[in-house]
C-alpha cells in the first residue's frame, strides 16, 4: 500500500479551524487522562528501515529539523505527520478532503478509513471534530502495530485500527453506519482493482448514512484514463433511475489541481460521491447524520480555490464530460460452481467483498 503526493506545502491547511496543538505532556493525554503512546520528537523514532507484513516501512524526518515526519511504505510516501500538530496536513489531496469535511455540519463524525498507513487523516479528524468515532483499516498487520507505537493516535473507541483487506473489512460494517468513507488504498502507486468497481462503490453506499460522503484518492497520469473510469463507475453506482444529472442516490464530483485536468502531470485527484440525504435506508435512522453536502454550492469551490495549492471542483455536466466514453469498472464474473459436491474454502471468508466471519455492531464498535 502506498500513496503518491502532488507536492508538499509548508502552510497549515486552511480547512483547519482549530489552533495548533500545544506541545508537552498535557497535550498527549486523552479526555479520560490516559497518556497516548507515541513519539514526542523525531529523535524518538527509529531511523532504520523496518520490516513489515507487506514489505518495509521507513520514517524520514523533515529536513528543517521540525517535528514533521514522512512515512514511506515500500519506498512510497504514504503519510506525513507533524508530531506536535495533528491539524497540519501537507499532502495536497488530504487538504482537499479536509475542505470537503469542513463543508459538513459541525460535530463529531463516524469515519471509515480504508488504507490507514500513518493515520494522518484520522488524527486530523479527531483534532478538528473531537469525540468522532473512526475505524482505520490497513492490509499490513505489522504496520498497524507500529503506527500505534510511533504516533500519538486517538485510542479506542475514538479510533480503532484493523488489519485486513479494505473491501472485506468494509463488508463487515452495518448498513447506514458511517458519515464518511475514505478510500486511500494503494499497491505501489496503483489502486487495487477490487476497490474501484461499481460493486465496491455500492458497498460504500450501503455503509454510508443518508447524506454521507465517499472520498477516494485516485492517482493517475495523463490521459487520466483510470480516473475517468472511476468517475464513470461512481456515476453508474449512484444514478440508478436513468437520470442524466442527479440520481436518486446522490451526486458525484471531482477535485484536482487545474494542471492535472489539462493532462500535464501525474498526481492525485479526489473523487467525491455524496449519498442523497433523502435516500431510504435499511439501517437505523439517526438525527445526528449529516444533512447532505451540496457539491454545487459555491462555498466548497471557493474553499478549494483558497488552498495552498488551488484546486478545481468539477460537478454535474462537467463530471460527465470529464468521464466521456469511459466505461464503469465492474467486478469479474463469479466462477461457475462445479457439478461436484459442495465444499467450503478457507479463502471464501476473506476474499474481497465477502463477509468476514466476525461481525461488528457499528463504526467504532466491535462485538466482544
In short:
The protein has helices at residues 92-102, 120-128, 141-150, 166-170, 198-207, 225-238, 258-261, 298-305, 316-323, and strands at 50-51, 56-61, 68-73, 76-82, 110-114, 133-138, 159-163, 178-183, 208-220, 250-256, 267-275, 312-315.
Provide the descriptors you would attach to this structure in a database record.
disordered C terminus; 368 residues; alpha/beta; 8-stranded mixed sheet; single chain; disordered N terminus; 4-stranded antiparallel sheet; 9 helices; globular; Rossmann fold
Descriptive overview:
The chain is of the alpha/beta class. The chain has a domain at 86-323: Vaccinia Virus protein VP39 (Rossmann fold, 3-Layer(aba) Sandwich), CATH 3.40.50.150. The protein contains nine helices and twelve strands. Strands 7-6-5-8-9-11-10-12 form an eight-stranded mixed beta sheet, with helices on both faces. Helix 5 crosses helix 6 (225-238) and helix 6 (225-238) crosses helix 9. Residues 37-51, 358-368 have a biased composition (Basic and acidic residues). Residues 1-63, 322-368 are annotated as: Disordered.
Poorly predicted tracts of residues: 1-12, 19-35, 241-247, 281-289, 343-362, 364-368
Q: What is the molecular shape?
A: globular
Largest sheet: 8 strands, mixed
Output the structural class.
alpha/beta
User: What's the helix-strand series?
Assistant: EEEEHEHEHEHEHEHEHEHEH
Q: How are the strands ordered across the major sheet?
A: 7-6-5-8-9-11-10-12
Protein name: Fused MFS/spermidine synthase
Biased composition (Basic residues): 1-11
Organism: Oerskovia rustica
InterPro entries: Methyltransf_11, SAM-dependent_MTases_sf
Amino acid at each position: 500500500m502506498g500513496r503518491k503526493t502532488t507536492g508538499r506545502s509548508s502552510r497549515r491547511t486552511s480547512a483547519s479551524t482549530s489552533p495548533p496543538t500545544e506541545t508537552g505532556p498535557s497535550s498527549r493525554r486523552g479526555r479520560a487522562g490516559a497518556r497516548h503512546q507515541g513519539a514526542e520528537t523525531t529523535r524518538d523514532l527509529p531511523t532504520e528501515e523496518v520490516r513489515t507484513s507487506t514489505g518495509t516501512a521507513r520514517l524520514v524526518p523533515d529536513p528543517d529539523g521540525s517535528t514533521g515526519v514522512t512515512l514511506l511504505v515500500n519506498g512510497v510516501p504514504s503519510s506525513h505527520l507533524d508530531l506536535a500538530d495533528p491539524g497540519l496536513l501537507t499532502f495536497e489531496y488530504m487538504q482537499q478532503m479536509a475542505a470537503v469535511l469542513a463543508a459538513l455540519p459541525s460535530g463529531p463524525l463516524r469515519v471509515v478509513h480504508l488504507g490507514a498507513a500513518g493515520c494522518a487523516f484520522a488524527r486530523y479528524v479527531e483534532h478538528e471534530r473531537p469525540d468522532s468515532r473512526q475505524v482505520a483499516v490497513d492490509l499490513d498487520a505489522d504496520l498497524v502495530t507500529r503506527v500505534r507505537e510511533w504516533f500519538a493516535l486517538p485510542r479506542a473507541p475514538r479510533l480503532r485500527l484493523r488489519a485486513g483487506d479494505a473491501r472485506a473489512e468494509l463488508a463487515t460494517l452495518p448498513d447506514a453506519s458511517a458519515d464518511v468513507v475514505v478510500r486511500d488504498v494503494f499497491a505501489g502507486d496503483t489502486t487495487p482493482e477490487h476497490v474501484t468497481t461499481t460493486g465496491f462503490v455500492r458497498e460504500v453506499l450501503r455503509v454510508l448514512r443518508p447524506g454521507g460522503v465517499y472520498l477516494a484518492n485516485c492517482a493517475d497520469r495523463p490521459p487520466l484514463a483510470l480516473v475517468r473510469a472511476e468517475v464513470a463507475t461512481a456515476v453508474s453506482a449512484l444514478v440508478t433511475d436513468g437520470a442524466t444529472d442527479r440520481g436518486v442516490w446522490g451526486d458525484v464530483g471531482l477535485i484536482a489541481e487545474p494542471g492535472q485536468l489539462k493532462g500535464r502531470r501525474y498526481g492525485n485527484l479526489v473523487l467525491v460521491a455524496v449519498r442523497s440525504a433523502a435516500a431510504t435506508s435499511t439501517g437505523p435512522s439517526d438525527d445526528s447524520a449529516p444533512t447532505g453536502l451540496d457539491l454545487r454550492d459555491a462555498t466548497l469551490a471557493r474553499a478549494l480555490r483558497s488552498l495552498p495549492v488551488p484546486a478545481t471542483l468539477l460537478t454535474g455536466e462537467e463530471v460527465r464530460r470529464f468521464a466521456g466514453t469511459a466505461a464503469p469498472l465492474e467486478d469479474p464474473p463469479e466462477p461457475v460452481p462445479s457439478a461436484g459436491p459442495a465444499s467450503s474454502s478457507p479463502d471464501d471468508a476473506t476474499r474481497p467483498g465477502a463477509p468476514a466471519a466476525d461481525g461488528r455492531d457499528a463504526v467504532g464498535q466491535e462485538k466482544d
